[in-house]
Amino acid sequence: MNCSTLIYVVHSLNPGGAEKLVVNMSVAFASDFKVVVICLDEPGLWAKNLREKQIPVHCVWRQPGMDMNVPVRLANLFRRHRANIIHAHQCTPWFYSALSRLIYSAPFLLVEEHGRFYPEVKNSKRIFINRLITRRLTHRFVAVSKDVKERLQKFEGLDQAHIEVVYNGVNADLTIKQTERFQLRSDMGFSPEDFVVGTVGRFNTIKNLPMMVKALNQSFKNEPSIRGLLVGDGPVFGDIKALIKKSGLSGVVMLTGHRDNARNLMHCMDLFILSSFSEGTSMALIEAMAAGVPVAVTDVGGNPEIVTKNETGWIIPSGSVECLVSAILEAVKNSDKRKMLGEAGKRRFKERFTFDRMIHGYRKIYGEMIE
Description:
By secondary structure, the chain is of the alpha/beta class.
């Protein structure tokens, strides 16, 4: 297949779960295909990483609103690179990639949906256009969880029978020695007695980080050893920083901003939290499980497909600060359960969410499309 061209279309390559996946998949498939990445909005921070590996990254610089120049630019790039497969990540790249096939129809088109907006509202016009045009220009449909698959039917007008589920995957975590973990925690300003509750991800409203900050505030009042570690950046970073200061947690909760070693920082954590309103298959969540860190997640989206309640982690009702506080305090006081959940989570990761398993799934799909 290495004479074929595989093109990924994505919003940008700025730090985020879907963007990390595009970077990792591009590198993984570079030995099978000529890989090209096209960004709709801007190249982003990680474009340089791919270009250094001789993987071309283009940008079509989409303008606000419906930019009908984008399908033309995409079609020209697809023709120039003699594209065989177009893999569009998320619905907007899918829409423009599908329209480009009205101009240049040679490539096969696959859409992969990572996650959904919150809250979602049915748009009859959108569903009509998908059924009339976009769906008919697309060859394969992939969702990263069963929940996303159901939402594609409800909100995009797709047929569930035509949607495959391929869970996201990450590489196995490198085991670090206990002495290395202690040193890493020390470097971050944590003492051996601190109980570190953390999260990693893009700071946007869908992650419901205020819920986590409020839970940390209440938990700290009951258990002074608790510390917070929030790794990431994004549109609501300033709001979260202000909330932490207002709550009197400036010396308790650490905000790191974007960190290239975000995954390594998970080894500082005694409990990983995902307080989102909605999720597909969270890359940060499966990275935490790969590291053996026990997890507490909200009962939304694909989270319950990854975490089994009281078997591989705590599952919390969405928005319930009280239940999250209860989980945090139980994790502090019950080290045996914490250890059990961390080990079980790591086993589940190895069974269902490895990078090799995901790549095998897409390699099979790509092969079928070309054949």
